[in-house]
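Severity: low
Component: inverse-folding endpoint
Summary: output formatting inconsistent between runs
Steps to reproduce: submit the following C-alpha cells with default settings.
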C-alpha cells in the first residue's frame, strides 16, 4: 500500500506548496540544486521558507543564512519541517543523504495525506539523479512508497555526465514519468572552477554576477548557466510554485 494515499489534488492548485529535495545517495546534487532553487524563488519574488537538514555540510544555510536548520538525528525535529507550513505558504526542504527511510517512516507514522489535506497543501518530491545506479534506486524506493500521493520532479544532474543510460532505460523512470506523471528537468553542468569560486566566496550565482571576485567572462558564464537552469525550472513551475505565473520572466 502507498504511504500517501492517492490525491486528486496532486496537480491542482493548492494554497500551500511543500518541495522536498531528496535522494538518499550522497553527492547527487541535492544541496546544489536546493541552493539555486531558493535563489530562483528570490529572483522570482516568491515568498518562501527554506529548511536545511544537512548537519554535515549545511550548504543551503551557508548560502542562504536566513534558512532554518533542523537536525534529523532528533526525531521530533522533523515535525518542524511540516509545522512550518502552518505559517509559510511555500517550503523548500534540503534533505541530507541517507534520509529516505526516515521521511518514508515519518509519512507513514503521521498519515501524511491527512496532514496535507488539513494544510490544503501539495507535496512535490524533487529527486536529483545522476549517471549512477544508486541514485536511480533511491528514486525507486521513494516512488514505490509515495506513489501518486505527491507530485514528482526528477532533476537530471549533468555535473558528471549528460548521459543517463541507467536512468533513461529503467523501469523506475517509466513508472515515475508515465504512471505518476512526473516531470523531468535538467541541471546543467557548471565548470568546476566556478563551483569552487562560489564556495570560496560563499556567494550565490545571482550575487556573483556583481561580485568583484569574478571576472567579466566568468560572470557571463554564470549568467548563461543560471539562465539555462531557470528555463528548466520554469518547465516544472506548475509543480513547484503555488502561482507558476510568478516565474514567467524566466520562460524564454
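Observed output (run 2 of 3):
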Amino acid at each position: 500500500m502507498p504511504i500517501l494515499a492517492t490525491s486528486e489534488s496532486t496537480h491542482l492548485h493548492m494554497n500551500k506548496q511543500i518541495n522536498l529535495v531528496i535522494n538518499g545517495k550522497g553527492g547527487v546534487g541535492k544541496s546544489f540544486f536546493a541552493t539555486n532553487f531558493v535563489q530562483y524563488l528570490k529572483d522570482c519574488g516568491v515568498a518562501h521558507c527554506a529548511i536545511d537538514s544537512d548537519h554535515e555540510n549545511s550548504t543551503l544555510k551557508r548560502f542562504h543564512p536566513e534558512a532554518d536548520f533542523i537536525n534529523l538525528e532528533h526525531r521530533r525535529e522533523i515535525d518542524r519541517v511540516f509545522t512550518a507550513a502552518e505559517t509559510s505558504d511555500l517550503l523548500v526542504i534540503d534533505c541530507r543523504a541517507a534520509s529516505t527511510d526516515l521521511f518514508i517512516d515519518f509519512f507513514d507514522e503521521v498519515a501524511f495525506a491527512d496532514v496535507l489535506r488539513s494544510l490544503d497543501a501539495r507535496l512535490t518530491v524533487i529527486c536529483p539523479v545522476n549517471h549512477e545506479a544508486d541514485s536511480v534506486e533511491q528514486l525507486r524506493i521513494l516512488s514505490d512508497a509515495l506513489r501518486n500521493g505527491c507530485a514528482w520532479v526528477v532533476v537530471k544532474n549533468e555535473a558528471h555526465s549528460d548521459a543517463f543510460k541507467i536512468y533513461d532505460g529503467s523501469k523506475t523512470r517509466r513508472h515515475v514519468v508515465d504512471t505518476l506523471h512526473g516531470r523531468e528537468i535538467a541541471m546543467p553542468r557548471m565548470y568546476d572552477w566556478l563551483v569552487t569560486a562560489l564556495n570560496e566566496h560563499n556567494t550565490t550565482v545571482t550575487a556573483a554576477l556583481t561580485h568583484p571576485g569574478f571576472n567579466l567572462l566568468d560572470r557571463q558564464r554564470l549568467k548563461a548557466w543560471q539562465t539555462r537552469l531557470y528555463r528548466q525550472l520554469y518547465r516544472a513551475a506548475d509543480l513547484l510554485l503555488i502561482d507558476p505565473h510568478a516565474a514567467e520572466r524566466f520562460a524564454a
